Amino acid sequence: MDIGLGNVYSSYFTKASEASSSALESTLSKVTPDTSEEELMDACRKFEAYFLEQIYKGMEKTIMRADDEGSGAISQYEEYFGDMRTQAYAKASSEQGDGVGLAKQLYEQMRRNYGL
Fold first, then answer.
1. pTM of the entire structure?
2. Residue 79: which domain range?
């Protein structure tokens, strides 16, 4: 039975995305009044990056793609590495300057809630 390389990569990135959300949830659940400001801001930036990644993935689904062979299939490389590219874009977007501002807003709100 041949499951195909595309299915293997698709399964891998689905699991990686689930692991990413689990890691983020774990990071955010560790925020307490004893959390340092640096740790809190790092958790907020990770959340912003994850949030942007989900937005970018939603946007990518709306893009009509030109196909090379008329089959409607995207290239193998795009299929294999598209999620990695999206994650890199989201991380870069959240780390540039103030990102989109979500991390800063979340940080300020959590500081008020925890009295930091």
1. 0.66
2. 5-114
